[in-house]
Automatic annotation (TrEMBL):
The chain crosses the membrane at residues 15-35, 56-78, 84-103, 142-161, 173-197, 227-245, 287-306, 313-332, 338-359, 371-393, 405-422. This is Lysosomal dipeptide transporter MFSD1. It comes from Geothrix edaphica. Keywords: Lysosome, Membrane, Transmembrane, Transmembrane helix, Transport. The keyword Lipid metabolism does not apply. It is found in: Lysosome membrane.
Length: 440
């Protein structure tokens, strides 16, 4: 009797898993781009639409309000619909929301678009996390999360380094918003490739089938341990000190350090893009994107490190600690902001690389979708509230000093939750601190 040797592109191979990973990462690139289009274009939108900073904050809040309403069910819908139907549903919603934003002729239509977009986008991110857990649990899971974060954040990096440029080159901020919609369509196409590969993999590897009868039970939430809840609390405080900060950071660098929105350079559009990318340290949106660029470079390595050495809770302590001096120095000094942005970038590697892959380790497999959904919904309480506070405080005080102190305070809270997590994990057998060698 001969034993069949699986081919190089068999679903059980690393090559197949990592190819799927590329497509599930590209699945959210459009939504990351469109999310930060508003922050990247903030200075132009404030001028052209005659809006204040609080309104920029409200556009982010609208995204999060919709996300809170639907994401929890999104997580549970994943448990019910399975990865393929759920991802298709939400990526189409993302595309629709981005189209409505780009076509908006009134402020209300703009808000409606952000609501639709938020409902789809955050649910899609929940689905993305659950798909990674489906394909990588017990394998290179933290590395996979790291790679997915790095690729997803390409969307943010491009948004900050091209959106003002598109608006400037085509003399229309609306063209920049249509570019975001186009990228969301690209993500829908990547979704289709994932669907084909996942269906094939499911058949060959006998993965749990879509909608295999998982019941949506709210009382399941009671079964989550304190470790899970501390991860959630850290998630909300940590991300509230990052995304709501970047929402108006381009405006802050323009306002406080006098950095331009784009580098004026002669030549065609691509020449301008290339020049602005290579001189990102000299424009306000470019400096904002340093956090993202730094995190993208290191995220896959940090993920690999987490897989090997574990120490997830300790890394979350370190990452939270870094936020405090970085935000304070941006707020109370006029020093060159670049080193502080690099430090924020380092924090933005350490905490997410350790935090997201911790979830499947502290909840039962059948509740992973619900756990990610609940965590993202709660995270969005912060992502909705703090951009509002950021814009409102800036409008009231005329500077960004008080908002930076607020972000440093969030870093401190995160640090406390990270320490509590470390203690809870010890009580629960140290699963988060253990590396692959210890867990076998
Ligand atoms: N860039 C859009 C907002 C993403 C929020 C999302 N819930 C999230 O936390 N993603 C993980 C990350 O670190 O980007």
């Amino acid at each position: 009797m001969t034993t069949a040797i699986p081919g190089a592109f068999h679903p059980s191979t690393r090559l197949y898993r990592f190819t799927i990973l590329i497509f599930i990462s590209l699945l959210v690139v459009g939504s990351y781009f469109a999310y930060d289009s508003i922050g990247a274009l903030a200075t132009t939108l404030i001028k052209e639409l005659h809006i204040d900073r609080a309104t920029i904050g409200k556009l982010y809040a609208a995204y999060s309000v919709a996300a809170i309403a639907i994401v929890f069910f999104g997580g549970m819908l994943y448990d019910k619909l399975g990865p393929r139907k759920a991802s298709l549903l939400f990526s189409c919603l993302v595309f629709l929301g981005a189209v409505v934003v780009a076509a908006a002729k009134t402020k209300w239509m703009l808000f409606t678009g952000r609501l639709i977009f938020g409902a789809g986008s955050e649910s899609l991110i929940v689905v993305q996390s659950a798909i990674i857990a489906r394909w990588f649990k017990g394998k290179e899971m933290a590395m996979a999360f790291g790679i997915a974060l790095a690729i997803s954040r390409l969307g943010t990096l491009f948004a900050f380094n091209t959106e003002e440029l598109i608006a400037d080159h085509f003399h229309s901020f609306r063209t920049a918003l249509w570019a975001a919609a186009l990228l969301c369509l690209f993500s829908v196409l990547c979704n289709l490739v994932f669907v084909v590969m996942d269906r094939h993999g499911e058949k060959v590897l006998s993965l749990p089938t879509a909608g295999a009868g998982d019941k949506i039970v709210f009382s399941d939430i009671k079964k989550f341990t304190s470790s899970y809840w501390f991860v959630v609390l850290l998630c909300v405080t940590f991300y509230s000190a990052i995304f709501p900060f970047t929402d108006l950071a381009a405006d802050m660098f323009h306002d406080k350090w006098g950095l331009p929105s784009v580098n004026a350079v002669a030549g065609g559009f691509l020449t301008k893009v290339f020049y602005n990318f290579t001189h990102m340290f000299t424009t306000a949106p470019g400096v904002t994107s340093i956090v993202i660029a730094a995190s993208m470079i290191f995220a896959p390595f940090a993920g690999g490190l987490v897989d090997r050495v574990g120490r997830r809770a300790s890394l979350m302590v370190l990452g939270s600690l870094l936020l405090i001096p970085a935000h304070l120095l941006l707020g109370i000094t006029h020093w060159n902001p670049i080193p502080m942005m690099v430090v924020l970038g380092a924090a933005f590697v350490l905490v997410p690389a350790a935090m997201w892959p911790s979830v499947p380790l502290v909840v039962e497999e059948s509740r992973v979708g619900t756990a990610f959904g609940l965590m993202t919904a709660i995270q969005n309480l912060g992502l909705g509230l703090f951009p509002l506070l950021n814009g409102w405080l800036r409008d009231k005080t005329g500077t960004y000093t008080s908002t930076q102190i607020m972000f440093a305070g969030l870093g401190l809270l995160g640090l406390i939750f990270a320490f509590l997590l470390l203690r809870a994990d010890k009580r629960h057998g140290g699963v988060l601190e253990a590396g692959s060698s210890l867990r076998g």
